[in-house]
Task: structure prediction
Amino acid sequence: MVNYSLKSGDQLSSRSILIWRIVQTLVWLVGVLILFNLIFNPTIGIHLFWNILIPVAPALLVVAVGVWRNVCPLASTVLFPRHLGLSKRKKLTFAQIGKLNLVAVIALFAVVPLRHAIFDMNGPATALLIMSLTIIAVIVGSRYEWKSAWCSGLCPVHAVEKLYGLKNKLSLPNAHCDKCYRCVTPCPDTTPAINPLSSKKTTYHKIAGTLMVGAFPGFIWGWFQVPDYPGITGIEQLILIYKMPMIGLFVTSILFLVLKKIFQEKILIAIFSAAAVSCYYWFRLPALFGFGVFPGDGMLIDLSATFPEWLITVTVFATTLFFFWWIVFSKQHKMSWVVRPDYADKEVELMGV
Result:
C-alpha cells in the first residue's frame, strides 16, 4: 500500500508537543466551561454550544479538519486512559469498525431532529447528552486502541468529518498518536482525500458511507423546515420533528443512487458534500442573525433591524460559491488531515504497509 502522508514519520519536538498540549488543555477547559453553563446558566450555555461552536464546526471541518481532530475536547478525554497506560488496547476487526460507523450515522440522524423539541432550548438536557456521549466514549476508549473505537468509529461527528474533509490542504502534526499502531484501516487521519465511501470492506461500511453521502444534504434541508417546539407533548409532535428530515433524507439518497449509475462516484461525493455544507449555512447564517425561516429559532443576535436582508442573501450565496469551489473545483492535493507518526513496528514501516 502506498503511503501518501506528508513527511510520514516526522516526530514532534518536545516544544511542539508542549504547545499542542497547552492548546488541547485550553480547548478542553472551554468545553468544560460550556458544559458548566449548559447546566447552571442555560441561556449562555445554549448560545455558546448551539449558536457559536456548532455553526463554526462545519466550516472548520471543510478547511482544516486536522485542527479539530487534534484539539477536540471529547477526543482528548477519550484518550486519557491510553495516554495514562490504562487502556486494554484491543484491536477492532473490519466488521466491528463498520458496525460502529453505521451506528454513528444512525445516531446522528436519530438525535439531531430532537434538537427542535429538546436540546436547542434545554441546557441541562444538552449537558446530559454531552456527558452521556463522554461516558460511552471513555468506556470504549478504555477498551480499544487509540482512536479506533470512538474518534474513528462511534463518534457521530466523524461521519461528518469524512464527508466535509475531502479537500484538506493543511496537514498538521499528529498531536495525539506518538506512534502509529495501525489501530484502524484505512486511518482517517493519514489517508489523503478519505471520504465516507473510501472503505467498502463490509456491508456495514457501504451502508454507512452511502447513507452519509446520499442522505445528509436532504436531511439538513429537511431539518431546517421544522420549527422549534417547547418540549415533546405527544407522538404527533415527534412525527412532525422527524417527518421533513426523513423525507429529505429519502429523496437525496435515491437521487445519489440514481446518479451513481451515470457519474463517477468521486465527483458525486464532492458535489453532495458541498451541497450539504452549503445547505447548512444557507439556512443557519440567516437564523443566527434574525433572518431565519422561523423567527427566533437558533438566533444568536437579532440584526434584522440593523442590516438589510440582501446583505445576508449575498453572504449565503458567497458561502455556497466558496464551498463548491473548495470541495468540488479546487485542485486536489495528496495530503492527509495529519502527518502519520513513525510506525510502532519498524518492520511494518520498511515494508511500506
Notes: The chain has 13 helices and two strands. Residues 42-71 form the longest helix (30 residues). The first strand starts at residue 172 and ends at 173.
